Amino acid sequence: MPEPSTQRDLRLDFFRGVALFLIFIDHVPENVLSYFTLQAVGFYDAAEVFIFISGFTAALVYGARLASKGALYATAQVLRRAWQLYVAHIFLFVIFIAEVSYTASTFKNPMYNEEMRVADFLDEPHIAVVKALLLEFQPTFLDILPMYIVMLLIFPVVLLGMQRHWLLVLVPSALVYLAVQLLGIAVPAYPEGHVWFFNPLAWQFLFVAGALLGNPNMPGQATATMLRLAYPFALVIFAAATIIKLSWTIHGVWEPFPGLLLKVLWPVNKNNLSPLRLVPFFALAVLVALWVPRNARFLSSAIARPLIRCGQQSLEIFCLGILLSALGHFILSEYDSGIITQLAVNAAGILLMLLTARMIDWYKRMDRMPALQPAVAPGRQDRMAR
Amino acid sequence: MNLRFWLVPALAAVGAIITPALRAEQSQCEVPAELMQVSATLPHLAERLRAKQPVNIVAIGGASTKGAAAGSPDLAYPHRLQLALAESFPDSSITVINKGVPRQSTQQMLERFASDVMPEDPVLVIWETGIADAVRGIEVDDFAAALQNGIDEIKNRAIDIVLVDMQFSHSTAAVIDFERYLTTVRRVGDLNEVYVFPRFEMMRYWSEQNMFNFDEVAPEERARLAAKVYDCIGRKLAKAIRVAVQ
């Protein structure tokens, strides 16, 4: 999410770009393409990829700023980023309110009159809006940014802790994660009885794990040894988890196919980032780190470039993806839910995300360019144009 | 979600092309055969019916079980179900008791089992649930756990159970995310070998066939339309139960 630096690891941008597309696809309900996203083959989904890479990148970028310009500057930079996320979240919230208010005021179906209480908060907008500003009110799909904002708010502490010793960060983070798993601690939200969909006390562990691995002080040799040691375990865990989850997905479509261990393992908790999601995800991360070298040739291919660009503008593209998936849902439920429309909605959404990333990239490059004197006289330019 | 989601419109399109004349003749409750597949059985109900003994069925659920939208309890789906079952099984006296309370989550309904369900001595419980959970965004895990506890409680007392999933409505589809909850009900049913009546898909099909469209009718017509939908649901449920007791 932070601005590109010179020796950027393009794998991070590439996979974050991929995650953004997968998040968009998964957020369009009843979407045939969601059979081909991570969640169809893994207990984890694109949310894990997004948060892990965001932690990793944050450590790289702000770690470098900490080293060059000191703790105060790095902290200020992180907080500025958190503020940008906050503004983006409120923007999405306003659009959500518009959508729900419209639906509620044009609602005519008596069969749903008593149960259609999504618009309950319209009865007390003064409270709902304040709760949204406090990040306590998180309607569906508006739940990942609040968690990310909390991650960034704690990040300066993580960053400074990592400078001293990585265990100073890892141990408390892991203990909080374990406490959530054992005691089921949740963070309350609005309205009464709700909790944060992405429990920040659990998900912080993934973000911190990403940050520790992205920490520029981490000796490369140690990381390489660790990866090699983890390789066989990662391979086995990844294969087993993938086979099990794939069998569930097939079972969901075609019942006679057995869902392996379905009775024992399902449901896998997402709110609290169940170890069943976390461990196979780490296995995937190890495999990707080993199998996709930093200088992999495909990263400079014409196909990878637009994805990398999306990954580099991830805040804007993420917000756009949320809007587009709501719009896609609306089109599918209001007009036609056939497979052709589904594919068209996906294609249009992805295209818009690619074009927007390109546009933002262009703006940023223009902004970075020094203000040039006109190199040629206007008259001459005219002639050249002809 | 599954193949059904696009199979239904595909079938609808084929149906619309080849059988326009036939369709006018058919009852408007028709649904594709795909939606009427019943693999689970209802052994206790079957035994009772074979013995020609009286049968009590409890329909526990939310607003759409209570059926206020149609204007009278006789027009709610449980009563329509009772009438349809009475036709199919004239030798048993069948009573369907309506225990619909609007806006309750699955957990809240579960807590009503002791007072509303068990005292009626049912041989079959029809549990219509999931709407309030989806509307309130209750955690899917908690939803699944409440369903599981309810199923266990009923099965342990040698009572049969049928689950009824959510209502479909065009306008809610854009603001409520039912998908996760639908998947969860289906999966819980699948794991427990409990029949899940696919109300959501049926209503979606009817909606696509323009059998009911609340936006295009006068306010006073809406109750009549709701009654029609409840009647269809009662009939289809009766048909599914007939298959399950065979």
Report the radius of gyration of chain B as a whole number of Å: 17 Å
- According to CATH, what is the topology of chain B? Rossmann fold
Helical content of chain B (DSSP H or I, runs of 4+): 40-55%
Give the structural class of chain B: alpha/beta
| Secondary structure: number of strands of chain B | 5
Residues in β-strands, percent of chain B: 5-15%
| Run of helices and strands of chain A | HHHHHHHEEHHHHHHHH
On the 0 to 100 scale, the average pLDDT of chain B is 88
Secondary structure category of chain A: mainly alpha
Uncertain residue ranges of chain A: 1-6, 381-386
Instruction: Tell me what portion of residues of chain A adopts beta-strand conformation.
Output: under 5%
What's the pLDDT, averaged over the residues of chain A? 89
Number of strands of chain A: 2
CATH superfamily of chain B: SGNH hydrolase
Strand order of the largest sheet of chain A: 1-2
The main pleated sheet of chain A reads as: 2 strands, antiparallel
DSSP helix count of chain A?
Answer: 15
Oligomer: heterodimer
Cα distance spanning the termini of chain A: 42 Å
Largest interface summary: A-B, 51 and 49 residues
CATH architecture of chain B: 3-Layer(aba) Sandwich
Description:
The complex is a heterodimer of chains A (386) and B (246). Chain A contains 15 helices and two strands. With 386 residues, chain A is an all-alpha fold. Chain A is globular, with a radius of gyration of 23 Å. With 246 residues, chain B is of the alpha/beta class. Chain B has one domain: SGNH hydrolase (Rossmann fold), CATH 3.40.50.1110. Chain B is globular. The two termini of chain B are 29 Å apart. Chains A and B meet through helix 4, strand 2, helix 9 and helix 13 of A and helix 1, helix 7, helix 8, helix 9 and helix 10 of B.
What would a concise description of this structure say?
Helices cover 69% and strands 1% of the residues of chain A. Chain A is mainly α and 386 residues long.
